[in-house]
Amino acid sequence: MSINNHDKIKEQLDSVGCGFCLAKWTQVTMHLGLGMTHSCHHPAPHKVGLSEIARNPSALHNTRFKKQVRKEMLEGKRPAECNYCWNIEDSSLSFSDRVFKSSETWSAPYFDEIVNSDYRQDFNPKYVEVSFSNTCNFKCMYCGPQFSSKWVEEVEQHGPYPTSTNFNGIDHLKERDEMPILLTEYNPYTAAFWEWWPDLYKDLHTFRITGGEPLLSKDTFKVLEHIQENWQENPNLSLAINTNMGVPDKLMTRFLELCKDLTENSKVRELIIFTSIEAMGKQAEYARFGLNTEKFWFNVDNALTLLPKVTVNVMATFNALSVYSYNHLIDKIFLLKKKHQNDQRYWVSAIQLDSSYLRWPPHLSVQILEDKHKELILDAAKRALYYGIKEYTHDNYGFSNIEIQKIKRIYDFAMKKLPPAELIQRRQDFSKFITEYDNRRGTHFATTFPELVGLWNDYK
Amino acid sequence: MTINKGEPWAFWPSHLCDTFPEEPGNKLLTGEHNWEIQLELSLPIIREDERQSILTLLPHYTSFEVQGENIYLAYTGASGETYYKVVKYPLESGKRYRFTWLHRVGAGLLCVLEDIQLWEFGFKDDPLASPNEPHVIFGAGNFPKNGFNLNYTEVDLYSFKLWSNKKLVAYTRFDEIIFDKAVDLTGNCNFINRI
Fold first, then answer.
1. Contact B18/A408, CB-based, under 8 Å?
2. Do A387 and B179 touch (CB under 8 A)?
3. Which side of chain A, N or C, has fewer Cβ within a 10 Å radius?
4. ipTM above 0.85, yes or no
5. CA–CA separation, A326 vs A206, rounded Å?
6. CB contact under 8 A, B20 and A334
7. Tens digit of pLDDT for each residue in B96-115?
8. For testing contact with chain A, the best of B11, B16, B192 (most A CBs within 10 A)
9. Contacts with B189 from chain A: Cβ below 8 Å
10. Cβ distance of B179 and A381 shorter than 8 Å
11. What's A418's DSSP letter?
12. B19 Cβ under 8 Å from any chain A Cβ
């Protein structure tokens, strides 16, 4: 989309008010296992009132709280919860996400309808992300109880990790009534979702299922089966599903069968599978506890073989433990791009490597590393560059401009110096975290990451 | 490394990724910088009836070509005018040569073969052009998709070096190839790639 178009969208939004953003209507992420919701990811999620959804299931998105925020926007005000964008707009000439999200095909066409609406009106969102529960068979080191039932079990048994932030403690969640609802318990939010779903489905542009581990939730399969049976109501749906590619074989087989039907018979406009890994071999298994890398790569390869249209997007949360094997991950991704290239993939490439730097928890950030180890990130960016392609088309396989840049900017982020006191604190937290991690889980940091033994010991 | 006839390669490291490498070597090849290219090569065949483009700088057409017993040199100034020079200098097929372009701001472009100065394009009032995305083609006079001035040739390349202000910023011996890219031994990612 051209800059000129963003200019026009901004002008259009500002004609309503300087804080007006269509995403407050058109987009939602619902954490049904927590009973929380937010429109885009920048504002913190807020609790959904049980009495609200009892009267109106679309209150999973159209909460009283959100309607008040919409009122502010329509009245020309800037809601405080959206200050991520105000910070950008006040400090630069750059467009904020308010403009980008309002420019999307799932937002822009609804401008008139939204502007002419009453703030109390319900609005069916067009871009929906849902997490049915936090049930997960992994407990990745940078995750936490809200997104992993395995983490809940560990913390209830052993307490928080002894870092300066009491990492992954759950007392505050209990105090705020934000503890995840168990999959085995009745969940009124999930019930409300299913009541709303028939009406919601037909209006959707994009639907994404996240977790926990979505394939461990019956609701995920219920959604897929509903789409399979009722696809004529919405044949243009963009569907996306997250999975750790580590679930029992029976579930993976069923999942792939459903995907095959949806894609081969054009029951959706596109289907993208999102998964995660950010290292290779034993180092990957250390950080993503529960992962079996042999099974992971088998499942990825198998999915790409059985589903010739689907693109697998690998979300790599690049952290301090990623640097030593990221080159090998790049090599692996390249080979899969080559093997599975065809002219049908929804997102052109069979598999994409989407590299983002980890910010939380700070003790696992690449910024704790010594410079000699940070240089390995630059090596990885160079490797991706050598595997690069000029034109991202179905005729080519290789790394795209964006895939390469994302790795390079992790290096740039890593090289930003932290204040000395903060660096020391983070390294101390890292050391304490790793020691406790090994004690609780029976892992062995020293043999898995010999490169970092010095750092670990120095800050014990 | 052998470039087959009709399968040219290019030095254009900035064209893959918008922001990396941060200082791509090809962007130096303008009238605004001091730079030197040194290419070691041999021609398996020398043809009497066909122009053979060994090295071409684009889009400001500046080239080193051979036909029969003659060497053809070209240079394009900032005015857009292209200047030509023919030098009678028979090359031997299969023999290894070192060709150098030496550019000094304000002093023009010197073309040297081994230690013999073939020609100097020294136009004070028409310096070498400075386009945004300069790039070099090996084994052709143009990109195949453009369909003109192609002058394909086979050529054996042994090494490519690029200096900027006497600092070596690109160096390949063409003996390490990753995904159709000859690796830059300086670590600057100034690779040469198959088109």
1. no
2. yes
3. C
4. yes
5. 31
6. no
7. 999 999 999 988 999 999 99
8. B16
9. 382, 385-386
10. no
11. P
12. yes
At A3 the pLDDT is 52
Among residues A203, A197, A207, A227, which one has the least CA distance to residue A58? A197
pLDDT in tens, A136-154: 999 999 999 999 999 999 9
The token pair that represents A16 in the structure block: 């309503």
Q: DSSP assignment of chain B, as one string?
A: -EEPTT--EEE-GGGS-SSSSSS-GGGG-STTS-EEEEEEEE-S---SSS-EEEEEEETTTEEEEEETTEEEEEEEBTTS-EEEEEEE-PPPTT--EEEEEEEETTTEEEEEETTEEEEEE--TTSPBP--SS-EEEESSSS-GGG-SS-----EEEEEEEEEETTEEEEEE-S--EETTEEPPTTSS---EEE-
Amino acid at A150: K
Using CB atoms and an 8 Å cut-off, which of residues 25-44 of chain A contact chain B? none
**pLDDT confidence band for A1 (50 / 70 / 90):** very low
Tell me which DSSP letter residue A366 carries.
G
Residues 119-178 on B with a CB inside 8 Å of A are 178
For residue A2, is pLDDT > 60? Answer: no
Contact B84/A at CB under 8 A: no
Q: In this predicted model, what pLDDT tens digit does every residue of A149-199 receive, in sequence order? A: 999 999 999 999 999 999 999 999 999 888 999 888 999 999 999 999 999
Pick from A386, A401, A408: CB nearest B179: A386
Cβ-Cβ contacts under 8 Å for A93 (sequence gap 6 or more): none
